[in-house]
Design brief:
Radius of gyration: 20 Å
Shape: globular
Number of helices: 9
Oligomer: single chain
Structural class: alpha+beta
CATH architecture of the largest domain: 2-Layer Sandwich
Low-confidence stretches: none
Mean pLDDT: 88
CATH class of the largest domain: Alpha Beta
Largest sheet: 5 strands, antiparallel
């Protein structure tokens, strides 16, 4: 098979591992810089051009679209879909996952466990917004934030009011969420491929930090999921329409709650923590499912 990886960096661990895994299984794998693609949209035969040439017809595309280029990246994925190429994650699903508010609304509609969350533009009573999610301590998040950036833990109601007012003064869109204290600064990253959890790790925040992101000093270890945690991860991926994603779960007193669903999950931390060849599992999924014009969301915008 001929497979393209849409990625801005050929030396990134996840991109490199996917290329190695694909080639080890006998596939031709090309790495294409997403921002250097340009598209012929008006032609009756849609194409993607790259370095002055029309790209060949690929059997499958693996989108590794960074959050900062979501708009253009999903446009490129959509063009491949129009050409009949099988995309591991479809453009509509990637767009859903990048909109934190929309993601939570979709997960809520499917009855998936979530922390109590508030969203507002200009609430008349900030105190009521805080009270509605259970009061301090609480977490305030920028909607456009990623990798733990733009996430603030407010220890008191007064601190929460100040942070919310500051963000609103900057005309930033924010979410206000209850702080799951019993999680103890830890979360579980579940890697879902083709509707199955293929690997899971527990990430523990560094001392004095409540964000468990590995690049912020968090530590990871292999974890055994409960039946409920596994079902939560699978259902979250399904609700978002993602074939490949990372689902971040907190262990609360009310059961597992989903914090985020990531459509371009990193492979380094989870492969190192679990010893599993996740990249090869992605290609196993492609081998079983890659068919022309298999995009389920076509015609739905």
């Amino acid at each position: 098979m001929r497979v393209a990886i849409l990625s801005r960096g050929e030396n990134l661990y996840s991109t490199r591992r996917l290329k190695e895994a694909g080639e080890a299984r006998g596939h031709q794998v090309d790495i294409i810089d997403t921002l250097h693609c340009y598209m012929d949209i008006t032609s009756s035969k849609p194409t993607v051009r790259y370095n002055g040439e029309v790209l060949p017809q690929y059997d499958a595309v693996i989108p590794r679209i960074g959050s900062s280029i979501t708009f253009y990246g999903t446009a490129v994925v959509r063009q491949f879909e129009m050409m009949g190429t099988f995309c591991v994650n479809e453009s509509v699903a990637i767009s859903r996952s990048r909109d934190k508010l929309r993601s939570l609304q979709l997960l809520s509609r499917k009855g998936i466990g979530l922390p109590r969350t508030g969203f507002a533009s200009k609430p008349d009573k900030i105190q009521d917004l805080i009270k509605n999610v259970g009061g301090a301590p609480l977490v305030i998040k920028l909607l456009e934030g990623t990798q733990g950036i733009g996430v603030v833990l407010a220890e008191t109601n007064k601190a929460a009011e100040s942070v919310i007012e500051a963000f609103m003064g900057l005309k930033a869109n924010i979410l206000v969420q209850e702080f799951i204290k019993e999680a103890g600064g830890a979360d579980i990253r579940c890697l879902v491929v083709g509707g199955k959890v293929v690997a899971a790790m527990k990430r523990q925040a560094a001392e004095g930090e409540f964000r468990s992101n590995l690049h912020r000093g968090g530590a990871a270890q292999l974890v055994r999921l409960s039946k409920e945690e596994r079902a939560t991860a699978i259902n979250a991926a399904k609700a978002m329409g993602l074939n490949l994603c990372g689902v971040d779960i907190l262990q609360s007193n009310n059961g597992p709650v989903v914090m985020e669903v990531n459509s371009s999950p990193g492979l380094e931390g989870i492969e190192n923590a679990t010893g599993k060849d996740v990249a090869a599992m992605v290609f196993e999924f492609i081998e079983k499912n890659a068919k022309p014009f298999a995009t389920k969301t076509r015609g739905k915008g």
